[in-house]
Write a structure and sequence with these properties.
D-Maltodextrin-Binding Protein, domain 2; 2 domains; 10 helices; 14 strands; 28% helix; 22% strand; elongated
C-alpha cells in the first residue's frame, strides 16, 4: 500500500475534541531568517531528544534496496534508465552514512513484500505507508516523511489563518469520499464543503474561482502549485494537518520481519542524515514548495 488506507469508525470520529487535531512533530526548520514567513518549511520527523544508539555494524556490509518502477518524484527511471528520485537518493545517503555498499533495483510495487520474504532484496524504500496491513508483511523504520493535508486559496483572496471560524460559510473544494472530506465535515462543520469526483476537478474549481478554498493532499498540491497547470493562481494557506487517524501514520523503509539489525541501522542512519542537514538539502531539491 503506497499511501495510507483510511478507515473510519463512528467512535474515532466522535473523539475528535477540537478542530486542531494533530500529532506532534519536532519543530519545523525555516530556511532564510530574513523573511521567515516566506521561507520554505522543512519538516522535522525526528526528535533530537530520542537519539537512537549507534548499532553494531560489523556484520552489515551491503544493503540491497528495492524501489518502485514509476512514482515520481519519489522513484522513477532516470534518463539513463537507472533508478532516480527522492527515495533513491535517500537510500544512497543511508548507505553512505553506514559506510556500506548499496544497490537499488526497481520492481513493481505489488512485488516488493514478496521480494523481501524471498531474500531478493534487503529493504524496500518506495513510499510505503505504515499501516496495520503492511505491518503484517514487514517491519518498518521510523517514518522518514508523513502525509500532510493542506488548504489552498487563490492569490487574490488570501487567508492567513485557516480555522473553523475563519472559513465559516466559505466554499471548500475536496475530493468526494476522501479522508480530506471526512475531516472537513467532522471538524469544519460551518464550511460549505463541495465534493468533486477527482483532485483535478477540485483544483480546477479553485482556479476558476468557483470555490474559496481547496483542501487535499499536501504533496500533490505542492507539485500542482509548482507546476504550469496551476497558472500561478494559488498558494497554501495555514499550516499542515497531519492527524494520523485521517491521514496515516507515516512512510517508512520496509525490511523483512525480524531483521532488527538492519531496521535499527537504518533508523540510526536516518537520524544522522537529518541531524547533519543532508535531509534538508534533499528535501529542498525535490520539494521547492514544501507540503508542510
Amino acid at each position: 500500500m503506497r499511501l495510507p488506507a483510511i478507515t473510519f469508525s463512528f467512535a474515532a470520529l466522535a473523539c475528535a475534541a477540537s478542530w486542531a487535531v494533530a500529532d506532534p512533530l519536532p519543530a519545523p526548520i525555516r530556511i532564510g531568517a530574513t523573511n521567515p514567513a516566506a521561507s520554505p518549511v522543512i519538516p522535522g520527523f525526528w526528535d533530537p531528544r530520542r537519539r537512537p544508539e549507534r548499532p553494531d555494524l560489523a556484520r552489515l556490509t551491503a544493503i540491497r534496496f528495492m524501489t518502485e518502477v514509476d512514482y515520481p518524484p519519489f522513484n522513477f527511471a532516470g534518463p539513463d534508465g537507472n533508478p532516480a528520485g527522492f527515495n533513491v537518493d535517500l537510500a544512497r545517503l543511508v548507505c553512505e552514512e553506514l559506510k556500506v555498499a548499496c544497490t537499488v533495483q526497481m520492481r513493481r510495487f505489488d512485488t516488493l513484500f514478496d521480494a523481501l520474504d524471498g531474500n531478493r532484496g534487503d529493504a524496500a524504500i518506495a513510499s510505503i505507508a505504515v499501516t496495520e496491513q503492511t505491518r503484517r508483511r514487514a517491519d518498518f523504520s521510523d517514518p522518514y516523511y508523513r502525509p500532510s493535508a493542506r488548504f489552498v486559496v487563490r492569490n487574490d483572496t488570501p487567508i492567513e489563518a485557516v480555522t473553523p471560524e475563519a472559513i465559516e460559510g466559505k466554499k471548500v473544494a475536496v475530493v468526494a469520499g476522501s479522508a480530506h472530506e471526512q475531516y472537513l465535515r467532522t471538524l469544519f462543520t460551518e464550511a460549505e464543503v463541495r465534493g468533486y469526483p477527482d483532485s483535478e476537478a477540485a483544483r480546477e474549481a479553485l482556479r476558476r474561482g468557483e470555490v474559496d478554498l481547496l483542501f487535499g493532499d499536501g504533496f500533490a498540491l505542492s507539485f500542482w502549485l509548482n507546476g504550469a497547470s496551476s497558472g500561478g493562481c494559488c498558494a497554501f494557506a495555514g499550516g499542515p494537518f497531519i492527524e494520523s487517524r485521517y491521514f496515516g501514520e507515516g512512510i517508512g523503509i520496509a525490511v523483512k520481519r525480524g531483521n532488527d539489525t538492519l531496521r535499527q541501522a537504518i533508523n540510526w542512519a536516518l537520524f544522522r542524515i537529518w541531524e547533519t542537514g543532508r535531509f534538508t538539502e534533499l528535501w529542498l531539491r525535490y520539494f521547492p514548495i514544501s507540503p508542510f
